[in-house]
Amino acid sequence: MSSAPHVSRISTDGLAWLASAGTYPRSTLALWEERLDAPLVLPCGSVFDVVSAPAVFGRRMLDRLWDEGPGSGPVAVFRGRMLLFAAPGTAQRLPSLLAWEEWGSQRTREVPPLLCHGTGDAVTAPAPHRADAPAASRWVVAPDTRHPWLPGPEVLLWAAVRAARAAVRISIFPPADQDANVYDVSRRR
Q1: Which of 93, 91, 74 is nearest to 5 (CA)?
Q2: C-alpha closest to that of 18 among 151, 150, 116, 135
């Protein structure tokens, strides 16, 4: 059972923090005041980076961050992906850390790829305030301060590796022979 907070409404300070990522924060805030149900297109790289994972694997990472680690920064779900907001520079460093951990190797082939969004990228996040937000588009951990804590690449690597270990079953037995004849001996006479 996860102890991750479920804060789905962005505070005024959190909204100001998100808007500060853009070129025109006051214009962005004015637009959001008019259209609180509009998704947000946010540039990455200066205020935050975003690590995007398939929703189920991202949830496993989030659970590890809150149950066994330091917690997370803001987190959203949008169109089947979990968006973990991270410290600037994470998108540049995390891929090399994952490669060092042999992330794409045969051993971890069942682990999904993580998409890292940094300088020059933008992500679409759920609407700031939407009471009827669908489960596929919502804030799981909404920003609530002007300076939220953001995990860096090492923390997200730690969470990804632990989530992967939980997702991949390791067995000391070789895989079953798919062409073998299998007989039910439970009804033996």
Answers
A1: 74
A2: 150
Residues in the chain: 189
Number of domains in the chain: 1
The residue to which tokens 């200066």 are assigned:
46
Q: Cα–Cα distance between 74 and 76 in angstroms, integer?
A: 7
Residue 2 counted as domain residue: no
Give the separation between CA 33 and CA 105, rounded to whole angstroms.
47
Q: CA 82, CA 160: separation in Å to the nearest integer?
A: 13
Question: pLDDT per residue over 50-93, tens digit each?
Answer: 999 999 999 999 999 999 999 999 999 999 999 999 999 999 99
For residue 187, is it within any domain?
Answer: no
Whole-prediction pTM: 0.81
Range of the domain at 120: 12-167
DSSP SS3 for 106: helix
SS3 153: helix
Residue 3 lies in a domain: no
19-35 pLDDT, tens digit each = 999 999 999 888 888 88
Please provide residue 140's backbone torsions phi and psi, each rounded to the nearest 5 degrees. Answer: -90, -45
